[in-house]
Amino acid sequence: MNMNKFSCILPIFLVVTSSYLICPSLSDQRTQDLISQICGGVSDHATCAYELNDHLPSPETDLPGLTRLTVDLTLALARDAERIFGGRREHEDDERLIKLYGFCETKYHSAVGFAEGAKYDADRGDFKSMVYLLQLCAPPIIECQNAPGANDIFVLRSRNEAMRTFISMGLKEGSLF
């Protein structure tokens, strides 16, 4: 008799589970709509959409969750760039490149400080203050990007472009509150 009960429940379980996996929920669509709205206002739409979708904490992430995610990604990238530039500076023989890497490392150190403050504000739900601090991240990155010779070095150019994209994403998200 127990086998018959199990036999009746199993098909229902499979149908419910299959329909859940096949059909995205309404919240998933809302999250994708938010991502489209955010990334539509950013110069590098593809990177924006890829990074948000790739790191999405759950399929039902709301605007505050996406904003916190963006700030986390911004902070991680700034810390990574600061570390990379410090390492390259230490292992470089060309005096011009040593100065350039040191200059950008210092600029990214400033950006890390502002991004840490923005993360703190985003975690508290103070998105107005978060936007202000994210805006302060941009000038040091632009200074690094505009340093003589910076655009000739791929690692500098790619990190600066990615940082500016993440900052733009956070600013766009902040404008939606």
Helix-and-strand structural type: mainly alpha
Which band does the percent of strand residues land in? Answer: under 5%
- Describe the global form: elongated
Rg result: 22 Å
Give a quick summary of the entry.
The chain is mostly helical and 177 residues long. 82% of the residues lie in helices and 0% in strands.
Characteristic terms for this protein:
mainly alpha
What does this structure look like?
- This protein has 177 residues and is mostly helical.
- It has helices spanning 2-22, 26-40, 45-54, 63-90, 95-124, 127-146, 154-175.
- Helix 2 packs antiparallel against helix 3 and helix 4 packs antiparallel against helix 5.
- The N and C termini lie far apart (58 Å).
- The relative contact order is 0.13.
Outline the secondary-structure elements.
Layout: H1 2-22, H2 26-40, H3 45-54, H4 63-90, H5 95-124, H6 127-146, H7 154-175
